Amino acid sequence: MGNREVRTPSAEDVEHAWSVLRGALAPTPVVGEGPLLKLESLQPTGSFKVRGALNALAAIGQGERVVTASAGNHGLGVAFAATRLGRPATVVVPENASSAKVAALGRFDIELVREGRSYAEAEAHALRLAQRGAYFLSPYNDPHVIAGQGTIGHELAGQLTGRRLTVVCAVGGGGLASGLGLWASTQPDVRIVGVEVDAAPSVAEAVKAGHQVPIEVRPTLADGIAANLEPGSVTIDLVAKHVDRIVSVTEAELRTAVRHLAATHGVVTEGAGAAAVAALLAGKVEPGGEADHTVAVVSGRNIALGVLAEVLASSQP
To answer: What tens-digit pLDDT sequence spans the chain (317 residues)?
Structure first.
């Protein structure tokens, strides 16, 4: 299967997405002191992914079926958007997808398909389904999705003023970092720092090589950002151009961040949702001085209760 032709979005696409979404979703709060938290975990689906899904389904032809693959959160965003807009949608998830996310997907009026032992296999199946006459909506390699995620920046611009700004966000396929990077390209004194997990440095390796590089994805608490990239993904060049740097965090640092967010802020997060905070706690991203705001995007809360209980109960990395 050859690379799909995907249009590279621009800052103007992010601006248009903001005009679509600012009346459709309530702004998520910024809380905390020192490093701040942008609580995308409070979105109606529990993740920032609803932004890209709503923007994409608003842009795609009304009669066109949407097919997507997801580790969970993008699928929930698509299910929410399809239900709100009255659109047909098929969501393909791998057989090992989070039980919490699969249960949540089951509450929406969509076609849910479980296929494959990994996200890559689920994505390949979704691409085959789309070839029968549907729009394949990638969780990251799509201009409408990328632009929708970038609207977090527009909210931050209204919430944090008068200082330089560093935004720290998780990186899986790079859609969030790309969207934020496009937004930042139009702003003075804004930098974007991406955070991957050691178990799946897909984007960092691709940026280094200048193209997608297959990697071994190891087991990780951050299942939402652990996958290989689609070959030819437009996020590779966007991250290379607009993201200041990418750092990575360990499983121990992720677990520490999940416990910290629960104990210090009363915030429930999944592993991927805590990645940005993990990087800050581990000193891998230096917060700015008095003239700076540093904000971590807490990107999702959809963690299985048994996994959350085990992480919170353990004092061990």
So the answer is: 557 899 999 999 999 999 999 999 999 999 998 789 999 999 999 999 999 999 999 999 888 899 999 878 999 999 999 999 999 999 999 898 878 778 889 899 999 999 999 888 998 999 999 999 999 999 999 999 999 999 999 999 999 988 899 999 999 999 999 999 999 999 999 999 999 999 999 999 999 999 999 999 999 999 889 988 999 999 999 999 999 999 999 999 999 999 999 999 999 999 999 999 999 999 999 877 776 999 999 999 999 899 999 999 987 65
Q: Could you tell me the CA-to-CA distances from 45 to 98, 105, 124, 268 in Å, in that order?
A: 14, 10, 25, 14
Q: In what order do the strands lie in the sheet with 30-31?
A: 30-31, 36-39, 292-298, 164-170, 190-197, 245-249
Question: How many angstroms separate the CA atoms of 169 and 146, rounded?
Answer: 14
pTM of the model: 0.95
Q: Around Cβ 154, how many Cβ atoms within 10 Å?
A: 19
- Nearest partner of 225 among 71, 8, 20, judged by Cα: 71
CATH number at residue 196: 3.40.50.1100
Alpha-carbon span 28 to 48, nearest angstrom:
10
* Domain boundary, last residue among 141, 166, 191: 141
- Domain that residue 300 falls in: 11-46+144-312
* Total Cβ atoms within 10 A of residue 13: 21
